[in-house]
Amino acid sequence: MELLDKARAHVDSGAFFTELARLVAYPTVSDAPEGRAAIQAYLDEVLAPALTGLGCDVTQHPNPDPAGGPFLVGVRVEAPELPTLLCYGHADVVGEAGQWSDGLDPWTLTADGDRWYGRGTADNKGQHLVNLTALRLLLAERGKLGFNLKFLFETGEEIGSPGLDEFAAQQRDLLSADVLIASDGPRLDAATPTLFLGARGGVRITLDVDLRPDSYHSGNWGGILRNPATTLAGAIASLVDGHGRIQVPGLLPPELPGSVRAALNGVIVGTTPGDPELDEHWGDPRLTPAERLYGWNTLEVLALGAADADRPVNAIPGRARAVLQLRYVAGTDVDGVAPAVREHLAAQGFSMVEVTADASFRASRTPVDNPWANWAKSTLDAVADRPVALLPNFGGGLPNHVFTDILGLATLWLPHSYPGCLQHAPDEHLLAPVAREGLVLATALFSAFSSAPPTLRR
C-alpha cells in the first residue's frame, strides 16, 4: 500500500526524528512552575499549529481544577453523518530525578543506534507525534480524512490528570465520538505490536507507626518498648507475604474473567533483551506471569524506613513508615481498600498502625469481546509483520476511565513504546524500529476507520 510506504519513508528520511527533536526541547514538566510556562509554549507553538494543519478548529480550555493545566481540543468536522474519532495525548513530562548518562541531555534528542534518547520520547511526545503524523499523511494522500476528528490534549497526566474527569463531564458534547484511539504506555515487548483496552488503577497506601517522639537505648529498653519498625514489618507481612501474595481478600478482584484469561493465553512477558529476569515463585502461583501483570492485583512496597539504615545506632526508633501501592484491575472495590486494610490490621493486633490511602487513576477497560476491539485487531493483523497482541489492559495507570465511564466510549490504545524505555527515569528513549512500525500501524488504523462497519458506531 503506497500510503504505508510513505509512512515508512517518513521515518527513514529523518523527518520524524527532526520533528521529535523540536518537541523534546520543550521542558514541559507539569509539577514545576517553569514547566508550566514551557507547557503553554508547547501548546501554542507545537500542538495548536499541528491541529490547525489537520484542518481542526482549535480551542484552549481552562482546567476546573487549579492544580492542573489547560486542555487543548481540536475538532475537524467533514460531515455530520461520518463516524467520529477521538484521539488523546498529554503534553507534560516528568521532572528529572537522576543523572543521565554521559553525552545525554533530557531536552536534546540524541540518537545512539536504534535508541533515540530524550525526555518525552516515549511518554508521550513521541507517541502523540506518531499519531499526528499518521493523520497528516492520510490527509495529504486523500485530501480528506473520511471521518470527523477530535483530538484532546491534557497537560497534567504525569501528576494524575487533575480536572480531567470534571472537564470531560462538562464537555461531553464537545468530546462525543464513536471510539477513542490513542497511544500511551508500552507494548507487550519491543518486537510485538500491541493493542490494549484499558489500564490498571493505583492506590497509594501509607502505613505510619508513630509511637513516641524519641528513640530509646536498645540495651536499656529493649524487650519492654514496642519497636515501630518491627511492628511495621509485621503489619506489611500480614498484608502481602514474603513471596508477593496478597493476604487480604478485600484487596483482590472478585475473579479473573474467562474472557481475560482467554485473551492472555499464550502471552509471554519479559522477553526483550535487557529485561530483568522474572521470578517464577513471586506472586499468586495459580496465575501465569501475564495474568499476574495484566489481569490481577499486586501490592508493592515502594518505600520503607525507620531511623537511618546507613548510620544505625543502638536505639529503638520512635517512628517507622512505609508507602505501598496497590495496582488493581477493573472489578476491585477500590473505595473499600483503606477500610479493608484498617480492619485487617486491627484484627492482627496492629491497631497502632495509621492507614491513609490516596487513589490515582481508576482501573477500567473495554471488554475484550467488544466489536471495536475485534475490528482494530483484524485491521492491524492485516498489515503487521507479526500477530498483534490484544491485552485487556496494560499494567500501569492511564485516565482510561474518563473515556469509558464518563464519555461512554470503547477505548483502543495502540502503544508506540516498550517496557524497557526508561520512562520516568534517566535515559528515557524511543526505539526507532518501534516508531517506524508504529507510524505504519497508526496510518493503517486511521485509514481503515472511515470504512469501519456502521454497526460499530454509537
Explain what the structure shows.
Helix 1 runs antiparallel to helix 14 (432-449) and helix 2 packs across helix 4. The longest helix has 21 residues, at 33-53. The chain contains 14 helices and 19 strands. With 458 residues, the protein is of the alpha+beta class.
Key structural traits:
4-stranded antiparallel sheet, 458 residues, alpha+beta
Question: Major β-sheet, in short?
Answer: 6 strands, mixed
Helix/strand/pairing category: alpha+beta
- How many helices? The count is 14
Unreliable sequence segments:
none
Terminal CA distance reads 30 Å
Got a strand count?
Answer: 19
Radius of gyration: 24 Å
Content of β-strand: 15-25%
Major sheet: arrangement of strands: 1-2-6-3-7-18
Helical content stands at: 25-40%
Described by the principal axes of the CA atoms, the overall outline is globular
The average pLDDT score comes to 96
